[in-house]
Amino acid sequence: MLKIMEVEKKYEGHVVVLPYPSQGHINPLLQFAKRLASKGLKATIATTHYTLSSITSPLVTVEPISDGFDDGGFAQVRSEELFLESFKTNGSRTLTQLIKKHQATKNPITCVVYDSFLPWALDVAKENGILGGPFFTNSAAVTAIFSRIHGGELKLPLRLEDCPVVIPGVPPMNLEDLPSFLNAPESYPAYLRMKLNQFSNLDKADWIFSNTFQSLEHEVVKGMGKQWPAKLIGPMVPSAYLDGRIEGDKGYGASLWKPLDEDCAKWLETKPSNSVVYISFGSMVSLTQQEMEEIAWGLQDSGCYFLWVVKDSERHKLPKAFLDLTTQNQEKGMIVSWCNQLEMLAHDSVGCFLTHCGWNSTLEGLSLGVPMVGVPKWADQLTDAKFIKDVWCVGVRVKVDNVTGMVNREEVVLCLNEVMDEGKRSLEIKKNAGKWKELAKEAISEGGSSDRAIDEFVMSLKGT
């Protein structure tokens, strides 16, 4: 009986958390939902029918809403325009139904925290008389750039002669440091529109949340001032790798793929400390065959141990001779179709993360203190790579060939050696990586800046 009363008492507010239905957006929003639940709120993830079965967490309830493509999600339509329009129409309708369903229960929904890509969710919240706020899944620096474009202070397309672009709190940015399509806005019109729409009704939001932390991007947030009064609540990385305050929180609890961890872990156990390069380009990046070949032979020529995550659909792009080498003898390197990235980065054997510089991967690298080699390909990855190299000084960035626009094997070797050897630059990078690991942990630990920001939100909801 006592246990039941304790469970009832826990729920002093009910938050619905609505992610954009892709892995890189589900993970941080689900992690935020778990944080809220650990602090006494009832947290429900509202996700599309297609992604529903991929999300499990003992702390969080999962309920379906519709994007209009319940059998296959985005893959069913393959058009950003159609998908986003359908999600707005069907998502608004089914989110309203979800809110109304809970109205008569002991735990009516009091707030919607939604992915900033889905501003229509705030309209739904307001129409139903409840609170709402967006969750920005990019860095504050990237948000600052798009905020200025939305406000008309930066005009598109950006050209070489417009650079460096100077934004308060952000280092001077050249074209190669800015989101890739700002100089060719017509290349991804739906994506650009989605980025700008994040700010369309921001003035009506009760809160703004950002997956970053005070010491990491203090200057950027200060430079944005009152136009973006965000609560910095990151890094949204599972608790086991930071403060350890959420019991059993070793993974995000969402996977659209099946991880293959056991073989990776066994292989890593055979390698010396800080000797392995871990390579992953995330779920969205697709390299050309030539790029895959150059990176493959760069890894081979570097002499480093390596573990490379290559999706099954990309495996055919690897050189046959390279594949033969790694399958016949896994002493030097291993190729897997998927693995638990957090476990890899936390492993003592891993000394370097060769990454596409997506924001989640960047935060994981920072939180786990792993030096990085950035190979950014598009969108916000270029800005993240700039900060990794020049602001936080936790890694290097590959230089691409002026003619092909791609990385070559010599550059891969050069960058890996710069991070992995014991030279002055390497030692400085490793020292900075250790510093940011501690600052990330401090931010989310009890009394830290992010923890206080989350507590303020929780207390304001408990008072409603």
Can you summarize this structure?
43% of the residues lie in helices and 14% in strands. The chain is α/β, with parallel strands linked by helices and 464 residues long.
Overall description:
- The chain is an alpha/beta fold and 464 residues long.
- It has 18 helices and 15 strands.
- The chain has helices spanning 2-10, 23-38, 49-52, 74-77, 80-103, 120-127, 140-150, 189-197, 214-224, 262-269, 289-302, 320-328, 341-346, 359-367, 381-391, 409-420, 424-444, 449-462, and strands at 14-18, 42-48, 61-65, 111-115, 131-136, 165-167, 170-173, 209-210, 231-232, 276-280, 305-309, 333-336, 350-355, 372-374, 395-397.
- A seven-stranded parallel sheet has the order 3-2-1-4-5-8-9. The chain has a six-stranded parallel sheet with strand order 12-11-10-13-14-15, with helices on both faces.
- Residues 1-10 have low confidence and may be disordered.
- One of its GO terms (cellular component) is cytoplasm.
- Its EC number is 2.4.1.-.
- This is Glycosyltransferase.
Structural class: alpha/beta
How many DSSP H or I helices? Answer: 18
Q: What is the class of the largest domain in the CATH system?
A: Alpha Beta
What is the CATH topology assignment of the largest domain?
Rossmann fold
Largest sheet: 7 strands, parallel
- Give unreliable regions as ranges: 1-10
For the residues shown, what is the average pLDDT?
A: 92
**Beta-strand share of residues:** 5-15%
Which percent range fits the helix content? 40-55%
